[in-house]
Amino acid sequence: MASPLVRAIPPAVLALMQQDHDADELEQQLAACAVQAEQLGNARYFQGRPPTRQECAEVVEQDHCGKPVTRAMQLGKQKHVLALQCAEAVLKELWPAPISIEQRYRYYPNARMVETVSKKEEARLIAEGCTDELRGTIKPGLVLHADRNLLKAALTLDFKFPCPGTNEPQWTRHGKSSPYADQTQQGIYEQALGGRALLISPRKGMRAAGQ
Questions:
Q1: Dihedral (CA of 96, 201, 126, 181) sign
Q2: pTM for this model (two decimals)
Q3: Cys staple from 104: which of 23, 39, 117, 157, with CB 3.0 to 4.6 Å?
Q4: What's the burial of 86, exposed, middle or buried (CB within 10 Å: 0-12/13-18/19+)?
Q5: How would you classify residue 68: left for phi > 0, otherwise alpha for psi between -120 and 50, otherwise beta?
């Protein structure tokens, strides 16, 4: 049976991949990026052992809006950076079309329209503080395109690092204050950008929702 990644890649893109095993190798290497990021992140704080449930829940700082940041959130952010660095190298070798890394998009669901938010604009909005200007924007980890249309995804990938590691990796569900209330990241990514959205985690590897 084909893997979630192979099933999600459009046939035209599969045809561009140099060898039949490239898609399987891509999945294996991206899953390995998640494992490596998990190990490096844990080594920094816990000498290589996984954090306990209590350590994951510990509040370690406050964000610029004054909201508490837990160890789980801090670790997840750091591991995400490590995983994306690894994934960029893998994708440059194995993915035959453009990729977008942590690109922020502004999505207009009623119009079914999406536009990119430039890095400069994103930095300005964040620097301005706790405004609603970024409300309704989305920022997937990796968007793999089929061609040079950078507003459409062939595949969207997000690394997830549950803390503790025994928790199930899952898509974030938008809260009631969000314009996408009660919808998951996966659903919004697929609506906005097309294509399939898949999770990658250290323990489960790559998978579709519910697997």
A1: positive
A2: 0.90
A3: 117
A4: buried
A5: beta
| Helical segments of the chain, H only | 4-8, 11-16, 22-46, 53-57, 71-94, 119-127, 185-193
Gap between the Cα atoms of 69 and 65, Å rounded = 11
Distances (CA, A) of 141 to 1, 6, 81, 83: 27, 19, 9, 10
Of 80, 88, 85, the C-alpha closest to 200 is 80
Query: In which element (H, E) is residue 96 found?
Result: none
Is 198 a residue whose pLDDT tops 90? yes
User: Are the C-beta atoms of 151 and 115 separated by less than 8 Å?
Assistant: yes
For residue 14, give the amino acid letter. L
Q: How far apart are CA 93 and CA 175, in angstroms?
A: 38
Report how far residue 38's alpha carbon sits from residue 36's, in angstroms, rounded to the nearest whole number.
Answer: 5
Contact in structure between 174 and 183 (CB atoms under 8 Å): yes
CA–CA distance, 91 with 26 (Å, rounded to integer) = 8
Q: Which two tokens stand for residue 47?
A: 């000498």
141-197: pLDDT as tens digits: 999 999 999 999 999 999 999 999 999 999 989 888 788 888 999 999 999 999 999
Letter for the amino acid at 192? A
* Both structure tokens of 176: 């009631």
Helix H or strand E segment including 21: none
Taking the CA atoms of residue 48, residue 51, residue 52 and residue 54 in that order, the dihedral angle to the nearest 10 degrees is 150
